[in-house]
Amino acid sequence: MSRDAALAHISDYFDNGGFFTDLARRVAIPTESQEPAQRPQLYRYLHEEMTPSLEALGFTCTVYDNPEPRGGPFLIARRHEGDDLPTLMSYGHGDVVRGYGGQWRDDLDPWTLTKVGERWYGRGTADNKGQHTINIAALDAVLKTRGRFGFNVVLLIETSEEIGSPGLRAFCAEHKDCFKADVFIASDGPRLAPERPTVFMGSRGVFNFTLSVNLREGGHHSGNWGGLLANPGIILAHAIASLTTSTGEILVPEWRPPNLPESVRRAVARLEVGGGKEAPAIDPHWGEPGLTPAEKVFAWNTFEVLAFKTGNPEHPANAIPPRALAHCHIRFVVPSDPATFVPALRRHLDARGFSMVEITPDPDPMMATRLDPDHPWARWAIASIDATTGKEVAVLPNLGGSLPNDVFAELLGLPTIWVPHSYAGCSQHAPDEHVLEAPSREALQMMTGLFWDLGAGSTPARRT
Fold it and tell me: pLDDT (tens digit, 9 = 90+) per residue, 62-116?
């Protein structure tokens, strides 16, 4: 049997409704990791859905508890075909964000896969059930066509990614021998554009922290005390305003990357940032001056205010509030060191008279990673996708968002290649999450081609 036969098989799987059926079954399980009451659904997804699906492909599956109490379970699935064959490690996450039922268009149910035109709506369609369903289906197509993979596979599915992957590093360290592989290939995040196949080899890191000003107990009447009592909302607003210019250029020197390597600049020079016809328009004046939009999102650090609260916004009172807080984060690229961020911020605020602003960092930031686009495994994957699609592949040194890729790239020491199947306008993490039909069908084809080529014997040299 041939590569073309495998591609025909996966095309039939999509056209005859197989992909819709599999994805609908998985979307129907409300795996909201942010909701403690839904914890049993995380186990259900691994035991009742993923284990039978993978055992049908000859995998041996084991579900493990998370070493971190607030984290959900893990599934390790393994299929070993020969010691002389390359080994693939892959990954997906079965948890999703809250469903936000009642907030979707036309009152759609987030746990029912619904086709509306070219869009398939449902929680997890884009992040990440649809993406790992594509990859598992592609493995199945290769197996049914060739009769074997032609390589070994170890697949890790976690259920806590949407709450920061607690326990993932400790779990992978404990089971490190299980994850010995030659290459890591997985799918998450968006394509550069819906119609353009995309590969990225790492991700920006993310460092979350809270700024707060706590001046006194209780609010006080603004008519009696206005002008006499310091207002924490005003203080915090000025403190935040000192961190960037009015157009978002970072003013804390240690928060800026040391440089923009020429190799990275070359890699992103041909990239045009956009999320499809319904994505928001880019504000060209915003961010670091002198950088292109692609350089800003793939090769630079950014500071964002995610939420700001003082007083009672829902029911404001004529009172000076006692406290204010802001949830913030920094997205950062290699080689920025997040260990320097809080000390630098403390010095910056103190020097400007904001010693009353408290800084509370979240534990365990996601670290930034980046694989050289010229790495042999990256070139191999790009060539395979190009052979399947006939399209120029968008090659990103790293994703603009953040993934726990440092666990795979640094702890496990694997060359990491991500092939995303969603797009930036998919409404992930919000009501109306969806995938598009045409990119999903193409993704099934290119992952089938990629896995076919992995078992064809012409891969980069194996690890020793």
Answer: 999 999 999 999 999 999 999 999 999 999 999 999 999 999 999 999 999 999 9
3 state DSSP class of 25: helix
Q: What are the structural domain ranges in the chain?
A: 3-203+369-454, 205-257+301-361
The pLDDT value given to residue 271: 87
Q: If 0-12 CB within 10 Å is exposed, 13-18 middle and 19+ buried, where does residue 282 land? A: middle
* Contact predicate 233/324, CB 8 Å: yes
Judged on CB neighbours under 10 Å (0-12, 13-18, 19+), 196 is middle
What distance in Å separates the CA atoms of residue 374 and residue 377, rounded to the nearest whole number?
Answer: 8
Domains 3-203+369-454 and 205-257+301-361 alike in fold: no
Residue 32 banded pLDDT, cuts 50, 70, 90: very high
pLDDT tens-digit readout, 150-195: 999 999 999 999 998 999 999 999 999 999 999 999 999 999 889 9
pLDDT tens track for 347-401: 999 999 999 999 999 987 889 999 988 899 999 999 999 999 999 999 998 988 8
Neighbouring-strand partners of residue 417: 185
CA 183-165-188 angle, to 5 degrees, is 50
Cα(207)–Cα(342) distance, integer angstroms? 10
Record: fold of 3-203+369-454: Aminopeptidase (3.40.630)
Q: Specify whether the CB–CB gap between 110 and 38 falls below 8 A.
A: no
445: CB partners within 8 A, 6+ apart: 7, 10, 11, 388, 389
Q: What is the pLDDT of residues 245-268, one digit of tens each?
A: 999 999 999 999 987 878 788 888
* CB within 8 Å of 84: residues ≥ 6 apart: none
Question: Which DSSP symbol is given to 198?
Answer: E
CATH 3.30.450.40 corresponds to the domain 205-257+301-361: no
C-beta of residue 77 within 8 angstroms of C-beta of residue 54: yes
